[in-house]
Amino acid sequence: NDYLEKLFMKLDTTCDGFVDWNEFCTHLLLLYRENDYLCVKSEKPFVEEPKIRHITHNRQEQTSKILAVQGPLRYLTVSKEGAICVWYPSLTVDKHYVIADQADDQ
């Protein structure tokens, strides 16, 4: 009985003593959205454990952005100096690009 009273108080957002269809649907939507967020959050972003090692492609550049791209899954890192790396899910480098300044090209 105490559980039902607490549930009713959660559902009755207008505090009018009634629970209408809109309040009920809003409660269910928020409940399922929270459950979905918790399920997605618990999934591991990597397929396997990363290997800690020195990466020669990085050149100690500061990474400013990391993106996960689907189909097939790849990770992209972009540094402030203009280096772009494409990584496999196993955290090995697929491709490495360096965007040079106009002054450096001459």
TrEMBL record:
Gene giving rise to this polypeptide: ORF13597
Listed PROSITE patterns: EF_HAND_2
Protein name as annotated: EF-hand domain-containing protein
Keyword tags: Repeat
GO molecular function annotations of the record: calcium ion binding
Residues annotated as domain EF-hand: 1-34
Superkingdom field: Eukaryota
Key word Repeat present: yes
Record carries keyword Repeat: yes
